[in-house]
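[User] I wish I could look at a protein chain and see how it folds. I have put the entry right below:
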Amino acid sequence: MSSKLPLHNSQTITEFLSMQKSLTQEDQSEDSYQFAFEDEAFLLRRETLGLRFQLELLKPEILLHERGIDHTITVFGSTRFVSSETAKAMEINAKTSAAIVDANKALLHSQYYDSAREFGVIVANYNHTQSDSSNKLHIATGGGPGIMEAVNRGAFEAGDETIGFNISLPREQHPNEYITPGLSFRFHYFAIRKMHFMLRARAIVAYPGGFGSLDELFEVLTLMQTKKVDRFPVILVGRAFWGEIIHFEKMLEMGVIDRKDLELIHFVETAEAAWAVICNWYQLV
């Protein structure tokens, strides 16, 4: 019986660039004689995977350090939420039952987009009061639409620097327009992108979201639970959503987590309340 397992358990860079194996072979002297750092075919080989990891880790690290960015607030949330203005326009233009359903969902969820945008403004306004860059907290997101766009937008429109850690996907995700020029980064590897979410993070703010948001949230909670990183505020906006999606108390009841693990999480309903948690934690004035 032939195996049904895939040849690769993840998309390789060669596949991502649609390169045939023949393109990574170097049979001619003009190929083998190239400097290694100029040889794209060589750099894309499976054997150089570790080097590509290092480069994806190093590039944002250097550029952020050069901009004096030491501290971030990383914000997660759904890519599907839109602003209340967009949702109201959808409602006005909805002509079919399906369009009406979509518009109603958009209106319901737009509160989170607007809240995230407000949170970006709050953080930016705090940064404007700080003359020392080492005291500033910059908004960092996955760089895409929805909640990411909203919080980048709030900070950007308030005149602050904002960061986007974008990821290449089969259906390409483009960076939103509210990321500061020079602070929009593109990753191929989710693992390295997640490292950059955490490296400078002084708080995590998670709005309602799907698989990606849950993945990122549990990554953070696991790192803290296992003491791989220092504890900092993990703030979940919208208790009703999070309480329905994840039964934290049931996990405690079943004995798979401890009470102190739940102490990592702060539930809030508003942007102001999220910022208050961070201010109390770090005694910001």
